[in-house]
Amino acid sequence: MDRRGLINGLPKPIPGGDRRSARDKGTRYIRRLFHFQHMDFQFATWQMASLFYSPQKVYRNFQYRKQTKDQFARDDPAFLVLLLMWMIVSCVAFVVLLGIHFLGFFKFLLWTIFIDCVGVGLVVATIVWIICNKYLIKPSCRLTEDVEWGYCFDVHLNAFFPALIILHLFQLFFYHIVIRYDTFVSRFFGDTLFLIACAYYVYITFLGYSALPILRNTKVFLYPMAALLVLYLMSLTAGFNLCRTLVDFYHYRVM
């Protein structure tokens, strides 16, 4: 057993130990990406479904992982692999809807994966990781605990999935029927759908950080809800269809 000093009854990390540990965890995670037989896809599927009707249950498992494996972040990439598959399916659906050529499909897929999901996730996870460890961590935990960057990225992936399904798949069933027309009903339906998708992202993000016992004042993650509501009301008043604008943006970006 490592000899470590105790602070408030908790082990004091050896200098540099956290960095080595994070690097080792990241290496193992990447290595498992190439071993599908070691991934628990059934459990990852349950997590994805739970994010819609009971996201609290998903974060209870994160707490259990901390107790058993000493980390909140996922050590099984099955969720990420399934998320990539859903992004491929959604891109195929958009290609059919927008009549994009075959090469455009790959361009749209690359944008969706590396910009919309991974790129935005890297930025959001890093910003929130800094804010949590600098301002939201409890003083009693500051010397012994910290928020893992990998966990911040997992929270982003959790919050991204329902928004992806709502805006990239669900809305497509109604696009030609309702959303694409310039009527109040179309705007109301499209803007409400956009609001629900964004609200899912904010709420699941809030649940992710409120599940960490080392953080305080996690209600700040709910503050964007007010901005979303203002945006929703302004878009309805101004006759702005957010879902149709999103589809037009995707078409412009690819073409």
From TrEMBL:
It comes from Galendromus occidentalis (western predatory mite). The gene is LOC100901608. This is Protein unc-50 homolog. It is a multi-pass membrane protein. The chain crosses the membrane at residues 78-101, 108-131, 159-181, 193-215, 221-243. Keywords: Membrane, Transmembrane, Transmembrane helix. It is found in: Membrane. Residues 1-22 are annotated as: Disordered. It holds the Pfam family UNC-50. The keyword Transmembrane applies. It comes from the Eukaryota. One of its GO terms (cellular component) is Golgi membrane. Belongs to the unc-50 family. InterPro entries: UNC-50.
